[in-house]
Amino acid sequence: MSQIPSVIEIEKPASPDAVYDALVADQVRNDASSNQRQHDRLSWVMDLTIWIREHKWESPREVQVKTSDLSRGGFCFLHSQFLYAKTLVYTRFDLLPGRPVVVGLVTNCSYVGEGHHRVGVRFLRSFHQDDQ
User: Fold this and answer.
1) SS in 3 state form for the chain?
2) Could you tell me which residue, 87 or 12, shows the higher pLDDT?
């Protein structure tokens, strides 16, 4: 028989309520640390044209989306269709000098209701329209 790890040795009897409370507190700590973001997010709501390339052999398709937030690492937008992780997304910012194009990768997509999915995109690289 293996020995019980010292981490869970019982020093004094505990009630079921105390055990439950300790497990919930530990889960909340674990969830909080696993959901930390690398960059602060800013609210960024605007209509945006993006190009989605789901397969290497397909040309990107143009779609209109509404953004929800932005960070140094990426942005989120609402879309009417589910997008798989690792789908390429191209965005051109016509209002900025040089009309930069940003290439991103879908990291997550979740249904938020009323026919909309919230899509998270991580920036991969950017270049100016003139650099192509």
Assistant:
1) CCCCCHHHCCCCCCCHHHHHHHHHHHHHHHHHHHCCCCCCCEECCCEEEEEEECCCCCCCEEEEEEEEEECCCEEEEEECCCCCCCCEEEEECCCCCCCEEEEEEEEEEEEEECCEEEEEEEEEEEEEHHHC
2) 87
pTM: predicted TM-score of the whole model, two decimal places: 0.66
Distance CA 32, CA 4 (A): 28
Structure tokens, 71: 């960070």
pLDDT at 35 over 80: no
The residue with greater pLDDT, 83 or 55, is: 83
- Euclidean distance between CA atoms 77 and 47, whole angstroms: 9
> 38 pairs with which residues across the strands?
none
Token pair for 5: 């790890």
Collect all residues with Cβ–Cβ distance below 8 Å to 55 and sequence separation of at least 6: none
Within 10 angstroms of residue 20's Cβ, the number of other Cβ atoms is 11
Select from 94, 105, 104 the least CA-distant residue to 128.
Answer: 94
